[in-house]
Design goal:
It contains eleven helices and eight strands. The chain is α/β, with parallel strands linked by helices. The protein has two domains: 158 residues, NAD(P)-binding Rossmann-like Domain (Rossmann fold, 3-Layer(aba) Sandwich); 91 residues, ProC C-terminal domain-like fold (Orthogonal Bundle), CATH 1.10.3730.10. It has an eight-stranded mixed sheet, sandwiched between helices. Strand 5, helix 5 and strand 6 form a beta-alpha-beta unit. Helix 7 packs across helix 8 and helix 7 packs across helix 11. The radius of gyration is 21 Å and the shape is elongated. The mean pLDDT is 96. The structure holds NADPH dihydro-nicotinamide-adenine-dinucleotide phosphate (NDP) and (2S)-3,4-dihydro-2H-pyrrole-2-carboxylic acid. (2S)-3,4-dihydro-2H-pyrrole-2-carboxylic acid binds next to helix 7. NADPH dihydro-nicotinamide-adenine-dinucleotide phosphate (NDP) binds next to helix 1 and helix 4. This is Pyrroline-5-carboxylate reductase. It comes from Lepagella muris.
């Protein structure tokens, strides 16, 4: 059975570990604090957890690096001597490019297979959109292993690294944008007299309905046209959104979040 080491069992790493329950892997996670160690023990059956990154990585066939960016270089330095030749390294760290990873891991010395993997926080519920950018030496079979892992927790897309900034802004940061829209819609509805919890529930269900229409093959503007009765109330709202810079604000948000 292949061993997968997940370094940093937090929001991302913990969710990846949970998604692997029942898969044909021996899963060993690491965390810093006893609180996380105890929680993972309790919540994810069959997953091993240790405070030692070196113990986790020794003999691992696949390593998932899921620590915060500011400690990632130190953690890589710690585990690098025990990474076995030919290992698959999947880095979730948003700020590290393939060039950074190759440099930090001295990968050419041991023929590692490195990929950047960027999920979003819906991974906890198995609803992540996850982008995989493989290094140039990653073969189709190895790529399929990564796709298999991340299709367990949502939908995985293989992309070129040059698109990672845009994809991450759209889907990883995008979760926050959509939630802010839902929050704003709820606040507006509360001003109109609805209860906050009811308003939030209805806004979320409405977003789900809009997404379902798109999933059914509709074009956004075609569906918008179906809602906007001539001289009706929707067009007044849409025009008020645009008068306040809605489309431009969303475009500017993506530009601001996109790491070049
Ligand atoms: N949040 C997001 O939307 C996204 C995040 N990412 C990337 O995912 C990575 C992880 O983020 P996230 O899961 O949110 O972070 P968390 O803080 O939730 O998780 C980090 C984990 O690392 C553990 N940890 C801390 N120090 C060490 C160490 N020295 N060795 C091993 N483990 C350690 C922590 O342990 P303990 O719990 O005990 O403190 C914690 O479990 C980041 O690099 C981020 O860029 C990528 C895409 C989206
Ligand atoms: O805000 C961040 O930097 C991380 C990366 C993508 C989502 N969260």
């Amino acid at each position: 059975m292949k061993k997968i080491a997940i370094i940093g069992a937090g929001n991302m790493g913990g969710a990846i570990a949970a998604s692997l329950v029942g898969a044909d892997f021996r899963v060993v996670c690491t965390a810093k604090t006893k609180i996380t160690i105890d929680r993972i023990h309790k919540e994810i059956p069959g997953v091993e957890i240790t405070q030692s990154n070196v113990v986790a990585v020794s003999d691992a066939d696949i390593i998932v690096l899921a620590v915060k960016p500011y400690i990632s270089a130190g953690v890589i330095e710690e585990i690098n001597p025990v990474i076995k030749p030919g290992a698959i390294v999947l880095s979730v760290v948003a700020t590290l490019s393939l060039a950074d990873l190759n440099c930090l891991l001295h990968s050419s010395e041991r023929e590692m297979k490195i990929m950047r993997v960027i999920p979003n926080t819906a991974i906890r519920l198995g609803k992540s959109v996850t982008f995989i950018a493989p290094d140039s030496n990653v073969d189709a079979d190895t790529l399929a292993v990564a796709e298999g892992i991340f299709n367990r927790s949502g939908k995985a897309f293989v992309i070129e690294e040059k698109s990672m900034g845009a994809c991450m802004a759209l889907a990883s940061c995008g979760i926050a944008y959509f939630l802010r829209f839902i929050r704003a819609a709820a606040e507006g509805s509360v001003e109109l007299g609805l209860r906050p919890t009811f308003a939030t529930q209805i806004a979320a269900l409405t977003a789900e309905g809009a997404a379902a229409l798109l999933a059914d093959g509709a074009h956004p503007e075609a569906e918008i046209d179906k809602v906007t009765t001539p001289g009706g109330i929707t067009i007044k709202g849409l025009n008020a959104l645009e008068a306040n810079g809605f489309t431009n604000a969303v475009i500017e948000a993506l530009r601001a979040s996109c790491v070049k």
